[in-house]
Amino acid sequence: MSGFVGWMDFRRDLGAQEDVLHAMADTMQHRGPDAKGLWLSRHAALGHRRLAVGDTAGGAAGGDAQPLTAEIGGETVAVVHAGEIYNAADLGGGSSEEVLLRSYLRWGDRLAERLDGMGAFAVWDGRSRRLLLGRDRMGLKPLYYFAYPGGILFASEPKGIMANPLFEARLDPAALPIVLQPRLTLPGETPLAGLREVPPGHVVIWSEDGPSPRRYWRLSSEPHRHSFEETTRHVRELLEDAVGRQVPASGPCAAMLSGGVDSTSVAALAVRALAARDGRSLDTFCVRFESDSAHFSPTELRPEVDAPYAADAAEFMGSRHHTVTVGLRDLLDAVPATRRARDLPGWGQFDASMYLLFREMREIGPVAMSGEAADEIFGGYPYFFKPELVNRDGFPWMGDGPRLADYLSPEMREMADPVEDERARLSQLLSEVPRLPGEDPENARMREVLHLGMSGPLAVVLDRKERMSMASGLEVRIPFCDHRLIEYVWNVPWSMKSRGGLKGLLKAAMADVLPPGTLNRRKSAYPHVHNPEYDHALIEEATWIVSDERSPIGRMFDRPRLAEFIRGIAADRLRPDLPGGTSAPHMLIQLVEMRRWIEDYQVSLG
């Protein structure tokens, strides 16, 4: 694991820009604290920071210093890579950068199709004066870029681009809907003008003629031929294989453990894989809040506290278990670090608790496992079983409650109408659903609903996991994002996925390694803090944002209407209108984080 930065420019000599490239690369130190490398030429420059994580079952990771170069016909081919290649042994073995370089020299622009893993990469080919940027199929590792006349800047995180004086942080007014509701973000979008992200499953070729993007992976819909029993066996085989390839081949390993089906499935298989390989043990971690005993209130999405279930699951599978207890002061102190980890508007306490959890996990070692993404792939949220939400004319997970974007000022709504914007995003995503000719209406609709959930909402989950873990130099691997597992489960009919209720297929596949408490537990999403002091702080800051003339974003909103909305939250009048028992004060997190982001990064509002 690591982070990288780069610069290509056909109009200036980058060999004279070493100081700037150093500054860009140094922003990635948290992603790669163990080594640093630079390579500069006239028209291309690369910088890399390395995190040593040992090797996986697929091959060595981290090995040689990056950037890695090869001289061919008097010209240089240079590569950088951030991530893990799980099939490195099948591609000749060696470090990830060696595999990447060898694959590029053999398959050229088609190398991404050959890689199995999570990662992002850049290849500069001096022979053709072209730059190739690529990102893994599910977008587990980030890669941002900023194009300008004659050149392009790119980096694993926005801060790498922001360190170059050519980039100015300026809010795109049309992006306000995704600032206020990040789950609506389409692949590649950011709220900063000119800043883009390589979409998952894409490569982009840059030359003097400009960019040439290509999507190299997408789901395809095909008839499912297996019985339920055959399907459960194959799901189990695919998940076992993914976990087996992703646990580290040496050194310690940690795992998130909530006591739910997803994390317990991954942890249980990791315990078995480590024990079979060399007798190593797994360390599991769960987060709890100090305020739970006094203030926890069950909701549809979070009916129970995780910690007791996690402890029981750890005892059942035989892991060394750790409960990380977080207080309100811990959360508030951590939030500034989570903002720096993102460089974009964040999620407040949701980010902070995960950041603190990962900081503790990093004490065990640099590699951890997670059960993320199973809900989106197998259909694990309550809304999947509510016809009124499944069949609504809109995003099923949004519900019909209020949205912050509803309170934008008339001037802002002319530039970013939230209703039309949401409709356009929904229409675009529905147009991209891989259809199965002749599929019955129920399964066809559920295919659409799953596709919508695997777009913006899953991207938000994966993005938070990646940023909060790498802020501590921790590499988190997500076996449920194995593309072969996803391709297979995508074509399992909804009647099979849902047999037995939420994630019935996954429960059937994993029943023999899960404790009864986990199998029978209701779905419980990643926890959030229940604390009236935190809620009050959000309400207080949101009130200041809308009422004080010094607020940098207050003028973007219809102040009287937004103020009344905030008073409604303070009076607890919104609870029945929010999906899944969402905390009304936590709706204000995006508003508060937007203000802090604009101030911290001196974002121009145009």
From TrEMBL:
<keyword id="KW-0067">ATP-binding</keyword>
<dbReference type="InterPro" id="IPR033738">
    <property type="entry name" value="AsnB_N"/>
</dbReference>
<dbReference type="InterPro" id="IPR014729">
    <property type="entry name" value="Rossmann-like_a/b/a_fold"/>
</dbReference>
<keyword id="KW-0028">Amino-acid biosynthesis</keyword>
<dbReference type="InterPro" id="IPR017932">
    <property type="entry name" value="GATase_2_dom"/>
</dbReference>
<protein>
    <recommendedName>
        <fullName>asparagine synthase (glutamine-hydrolyzing)</fullName>
        <ecNumber>6.3.5.4</ecNumber>
    </recommendedName>
</protein>
<keyword id="KW-0547">Nucleotide-binding</keyword>
<dbReference type="InterPro" id="IPR006426">
    <property type="entry name" value="Asn_synth_AEB"/>
</dbReference>
<dbReference type="InterPro" id="IPR051786">
    <property type="entry name" value="ASN_synthetase/amidase"/>
</dbReference>
<dbReference type="Pfam" id="PF13522">
    <property type="entry name" value="GATase_6"/>
</dbReference>
<keyword id="KW-0061">Asparagine biosynthesis</keyword>
<keyword id="KW-0436">Ligase</keyword>
<comment type="similarity">
    <text>Belongs to the asparagine synthetase family.</text>
</comment>
<dbReference type="InterPro" id="IPR029055">
    <property type="entry name" value="Ntn_hydrolases_N"/>
</dbReference>
<dbReference type="Pfam" id="PF00733">
    <property type="entry name" value="Asn_synthase"/>
</dbReference>
<feature type="site" description="Important for beta-aspartyl-AMP intermediate formation">
    <location>
        <position position="372"/>
    </location>
</feature>
<comment type="pathway">
    <text>Amino-acid biosynthesis; L-asparagine biosynthesis; L-asparagine from L-aspartate (L-Gln route): step 1/1.</text>
</comment>
<dbReference type="GO" id="GO:0005524">
    <property type="term" value="F:ATP binding"/>
</dbReference>
<dbReference type="GO" id="GO:0005829">
    <property type="term" value="C:cytosol"/>
</dbReference>
<dbReference type="InterPro" id="IPR001962">
    <property type="entry name" value="Asn_synthase"/>
</dbReference>
<dbReference type="GO" id="GO:0006529">
    <property type="term" value="P:asparagine biosynthetic process"/>
</dbReference>
<keyword id="KW-0315">Glutamine amidotransferase</keyword>
<dbReference type="GO" id="GO:0004066">
    <property type="term" value="F:asparagine synthase (glutamine-hydrolyzing) activity"/>
</dbReference>
<feature type="domain" description="Glutamine amidotransferase type-2">
    <location>
        <begin position="2"/>
        <end position="209"/>
    </location>
</feature>
